[in-house]
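OP here, attaching both records as promised.
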Amino acid sequence: MFLSINAGAEPPGWLIGLATFCARYLIAVVPLLIIGLWLWGPRNQLTAQRVLVAKTGIALLYALSIAWCLAQLFPHSRPFAVGIGHQLLAHAPDGSYPSDHGTVIFTFAIAFISWHRVGSGMVLMLAGVLIAWSRVYLGIHWPLDMLGAVLVGMLSCLFAQIVWPFFGSRLLQFLSSLYRTLFAFPISKGWVRG
């Protein structure tokens, strides 16, 4: 499966450029959406947006913790480290399972499908598929690294959903209070929502 996705010996330059962009920069949608949803939006939707950000944050922290534990328990070499396929993107020869990029984007996509809108979640899922494809195409991940990332994302969103009723409102209250203190000036100027 890896060799059917990985770039051949002479891939087209435009495809390498597209894959490199997806592999390096498409993940930036995650922090941009988190910041945007917290700082701006219609007043009647702001609380719901901030709940989404907080729950997604819990899921992301849990996902990255699980990914780290899996990497320690099941070390797995990257394709280029074992001499398989073509590597077209520089990367350290550390463990590949599960993909950190995949873990972040798929956790985020599943969170949006679960707690926001299915449509927005599916757009993020498409971004996740592009990131997954690009990192396999460029030779720095195996397809199963991405499947592992999807499963970690699902488990992490389930965990966030389970723990939210126990301390979610207190966490949101704390984050909102901290935000209003640190962003008092931009809030007073109307640059961001209070």
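Record two, same layout:
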Amino acid sequence: MKFSPDARPERWLGSLALAVISLISLGNVITRYVTGGSLAFTEEFSVFLLVVLTFAGASVALRRNGHIRIGLLERALPAGPRKALILFQWLCGALVLGLITWFGGKLTWEEYQWQSLSPGLGLPQWWYLAWLPLLSAAMLVRLTQQTRDRLSGRLADEP
């Protein structure tokens, strides 16, 4: 049986975000054509959903080993140094994602405390920001799973 890594929650979330973006954009186009006016909420929701889609898609790509990287050095190294390089790659990625999670969480909490409202619709800003630390934490989990599978040989270096 072939090993097939998956990130099912992120796939569903990304698919849902893309479907909703498509529907509200279509609704906005139809409304603009029929009435000459535009639906006010579509831009704010579309931007928010594009961010969710981007992070969810990046998480899926991490789990499936689909991110772009230069593997020339990895392929040239013997097994021991190659594993050290993979661990170094994990450390760098984990550091960046950990910082995004930490500071995204801090920003979300501050927006919650300040009761900031979004400029377009006046919704609580933290509703939009809460997805940043959640999805970057999901990416960190998927990066760790990918690294573990690469080190154990369950996941090929080339997708």
